Amino acid sequence: MDTQLADWIRDTPNGKTVERVLRACVHCGFCNATCPTYQLLGDELDGPRGRIYLMKQMFETGEVSASTRQHLDRCLTCRSCETTCPSGVRYHQLLDVGRNTVEKLTERPLGERLYRRLLRGVILRPRLFAAALRTGETFRSALPATLAAKLPPRAATARERPPVRHARRVLLLEGCVQPELGPNINAAAARVLDRLGISAIPAPLAGCCGAIEFHLNAQAASLDRARRNIDLWWPLLEAGAEAIVQTASGCGAFVKEYAELLADDPRYAAKAQRISERTRDAVEIVRAEPLESLKLRPGQRLAVHSPCTLQHAQKLGGALEDLLRRLGFDLTPVPDAHLCCGSAGTYALTQTELASTLRDRKLDALESGRPELILTANIGCQVHLGGAGRTPVRHWIEWLDERAVLPDTRS
Description:
Layout: H1 7-10, H2 13-24, H3 36-41, H4 48-61, H5 66-73, H6 80-84, H7 91-105, H8 110-123, H9 126-138, H10 145-148, E1 168-172, H11 178-181, H12 183-195, E2 198-202, H13 211-215, H14 219-238, E3 244-246, H15 249-255, H16 258-261, H17 269-278, E4 279-281, H18 282-287, E5 302-304, H19 308-313, H20 319-326, H21 347-350, H22 352-366, E6 373-376, H23 379-386, E7 393-395, H24 396-402
Parallel strand pairs: 1-2, 1-3, 3-4, 5-6, 6-7
Helix pairs in contact: 2-7, 4-7, 5-7, 12-24
């Protein structure tokens, strides 16, 4: 795609990113075939190719409208288009620059600005987030139906984590909302890893990975958070921790991109590179170990929801399914498994109607094989899918932990 970027962006780091991505695109349209919003809305401007043209126009002319912002807002950043693209277009890089530029060139309505600040203010403060959930539960019956449906049921209390007792050690990212929405998930991961001879060390001060702020266009704050996390993890890696393990695939996808996001930061570029190289999704760690030591009971008939951040961003499509099959579990087929469920970070809170429609379509696909249970690898997807009140949805490692039949004997 030929580009003539405007002077104000041409020779900047962002301009180089924009030009590289635009020049890689051959406008073939294959991306639209796997774009959830294009499939749903049928509008060229709500597919990757159309959004690319909108951003190209903005970067060439410096002109942008509220309509452009709306079409970019509707993008889930699921990156299914990147998996499909025969030219290797890094669409999400262009979108990150495009959204940030739109925020600078246009002003959102006051209500949207306040709502987005509220989301950042609540989600990223664990105590405030917990208080908001409890308040919502108390007054659930008085809330509008659409808001009440977003409130998850009270999560199970976390069971005890095993002591740090093995020579092999990894770090666990605690996350921002998972400690409240799924407090037993990381505890379950620690128990599973312990049975495999690996001790999991919590890093409670490293909370949010930064993805929430980044995708709400508070990108400077997001990168500052990434730097703080790097500072917290660095001495633990130096002391021998072999990896930073994520049980939320959305966090894993973002931390693996620290190197890319901080590449131009002379103080943090090298450290960010090492952090990204050491980051692993929990499925990557578990599948590499001798699985017979887990000693699991036979399970229910399962459907696997592979989050977009696992299959498209981390390129681990099929990894969870393969692991569960190796463990002897029966998986049902899932049509159109590449399509997003509509959770997409805060998308379910900012694009509620689209997110609900995408969720219902995803559940129809997941339930087509009549599973007893749906397993996923991301807390946001788990809460979003579970909010429909249909087939139960669990995090795979928490469910796996419950299948153990023998007490831990390895030391």
